[in-house]
Amino acid sequence: MITKWIEEQTFANESYSGQKLVQTEFDDCTFLNCDFSEADWSESDLVNCRFENCNFALAKFSGTGMKEVQFTGCKLIGINFDSCSDFLFSVGFQKCSLDYSSFTEKKMKKSKFADCSMKEVDFSGADLSQSSFDDCDLSGAVFHYTNLEKADFRSAFNYSFDPELNKIKKALFSQTGVLGLLRKYGIEIR
Description:
Radius of gyration: 17 Å
Strand order of the largest sheet: 2-4-6-8-9-10-11
Order of helices and strands: EEEEEEEEEEE
Number of strands: 11
Structural class: mainly beta
Low-confidence stretches: none
Largest sheet: 7 strands, parallel
Number of helices: 0
CATH class of the largest domain: Mainly Beta
């Protein structure tokens, strides 16, 4: 239950490390160079918010709503986005570090990831149809029973997944990137 509302504010160079930001709705807010390490956002709502160069190390998002939220240049390592509220979940990432994060079972149609490090990210069971992964490093990312229909991987790199275990109809790949779809067969292409 939301108990506090904050609208149209800009927060810059603030530290919220270890603080509880629970049950608060942030609407149309901008956060610049803020430290949210170990912050607890449980049961809060982020609506049309923008985060730039923020640190979310070990932050908690249990039941947190994220609706049209943009992250740019943020450190989001090991975040369990799968614990966020599913209602209208919509996020975008540019120049972020998302290594070891999880989006298991999230419905994320048309999501945009650009210039991100996404090593070991778990997308098992997620719906990423029509999403784009522009210049993203997907080393060790897990795609297992993931909907990737019409997703754009043309400039993504280091990805490898089984096309038989994922929906990939009309997904876009570069000629060199498509080799990541053949890795399971142990063949050599020279």
